[in-house]
UniProtKB/TrEMBL annotation:
It comes from the Bacteria. This is Heme ABC transporter. Keywords: Membrane, Transmembrane, Transmembrane helix. It comes from Virgibacillus litoralis. The chain crosses the membrane at residues 32-50, 56-76.
Length: 89
């Protein structure tokens, strides 16, 4: 397995190179792009198909963004493993 050095002197594997740090959490670039594309598509779609005057496009765009978030959270599963340790371990 090939090793790459980070700026802080840490060593990361080839797999870890595909991750980016977002608000203190490591995220795969591919998954981030998919979820951003879904949320933008649903929000923009809701804004464009909104009927009526001024507040309707905003409301349907926000609803589309929420639907995009829900769809992306169903499609993209978390990749973390959480292990609990007792205090005496």
């Amino acid at each position: 397995m090939k090793q790459i050095h980070k700026q802080g002197g840490e060593i990361m594997n080839e797999e870890e190179k595909n991750y980016v740090d977002v608000w203190g959490d490591n995220v795969k670039i591919k998954d981030l792009g998919i979820s951003m594309a879904l949320c933008i598509a649903f929000a923009l779609g809701g804004y464009i198909i909104a009927p009526g005057e001024a507040p309707q496009p905003l409301i349907t765009g926000l609803v589309g963004g929420v639907i995009g978030f829900i769809v992306s959270s169903i499609i993209i599963k978390p990749k973390r493993t959480i292990s609990k340790m007792r205090e005496d371990d």
